[in-house]
Amino acid sequence: MRIAKIRKPLKLQNKGDLEIAFIGCGTAFGKELYNNNFIIIKGETHLLVDFGMTGPRALCMSTGLSVSDIGNLFITHSHADHIGGLEYLALQNRYYSQTVLNKPKLRMIITKEYQKILWERSLRGGMEWNESSAQGVQLKFEDYFEAVRPTLISKSPRLTLEIDFEGLHLEIFGTNHIPDNAKNQNEAFLTYGLFIDNKVLITGDTKFDIDLLNYYGPKSEVIFHDTSFENNPVHPSINDLKKLPKQLKKKMYLMHYGDNWKEQKVDDFAGLVKQGYRYIF
Ligand SMILES: [Zn+2]
């Protein structure tokens, strides 16, 4: 794996390598780092994973791209640092990119179950009222996004789905992120992580979950794991992750971390994910 600074504008195609470009690597509450959102690129395709409230600015500052360049999306869960920029992205696509630039409708890899949650509980408030509301017609999820469905592999012991998307293989699994007293993934609010091309684990947001690491850890070439430098009820603390076996830590990059990252000792790990950098496999 090679790490390189993003040269602007970031190219959304490559010769076929798997590439992960972090437009941000910070927490929901950071003031300096952008939200932990990234773009997967492989061959002719790209997939923006999450677009939080810092998304529109982060995309421009970290990659030199504009939201009109984005065609494909995957959302891990409904916290604002993961979906806060979606309304901006979707409105721009519908009222500018499609009409002025002739771009296609945004495509989103999403389950039926999560589509309902995302639309009904988050996006609908700002996005259903529109030019035809006077005629009693409100917009729906499908007016903004073309849904691409993954296939269910199993519901238990952990929700797992998969999809082959234009040469990119994604295994999508459920994580135990919130609430803090959910004992396992099935009790938790729907939150997804990704295992990409059978070699890269991106936990998404999760509490410390040894079962997840026991299952995917040995199969992973590299692990991108969320962390918190302080004790945190819904993310693993860096001290919890430090207790993991050496062979896991040396392939683990920490992400979703606080602005006080310079004060941390992370020698045990492969390193901290760097905002504005590409990880190329
Ligand atoms: Zn979260």
Short description:
The chain has 281 residues and is an alpha/beta fold. It has 8 helices and 16 strands.
Textual characterization of the structure:
- The chain contains 8 helices and 16 strands.
- The protein is α/β, with parallel strands linked by helices and 281 residues long.
- The chain has a single domain (2-280), classed as Metallo-beta-lactamase, Chain A.
- An 8-stranded mixed β-sheet has the order 1-16-2-3-4-5-6-7.
- Strand 8 (151-154) and strand 9 form a beta hairpin.
- The radius of gyration is 18 Å and the shape is globular.
- The chain binds zinc ion.
- Zinc ion binds next to loops.
- The site of zinc ion (ZN) has 4 residues, from loops.
Oligomer: single chain
Q: Which spans have pLDDT < 50 for at least 5 consecutive residues? A: none
Q: Which CATH class applies here?
A: Alpha Beta
CATH topology: Metallo-beta-lactamase, Chain A
Structural class: alpha/beta
From the N-terminal CA to the C-terminal CA, the straight-line distance is 5 Å
Bound molecules: zinc ion
Total DSSP E strands: 16
Strand content: 15-25%
CATH architecture type: 4-Layer Sandwich
What's the CATH H-level superfamily name?
Answer: Ribonuclease Z/Hydroxyacylglutathione hydrolase-like
Which percent bin holds the helix content? 10-25%
Q: How many helical elements?
A: 8
Write the H/E string, N to C: EEEEHEHHEHHEEEEEEHEHHEEE
Gyration radius, in Å: 18 Å
| Count of individual domains | 1
Give the overall average pLDDT: 96
Biggest sheet, spatial arrangement of strands: 1-16-2-3-4-5-6-7
Specify the biggest β-sheet. 8 strands, mixed
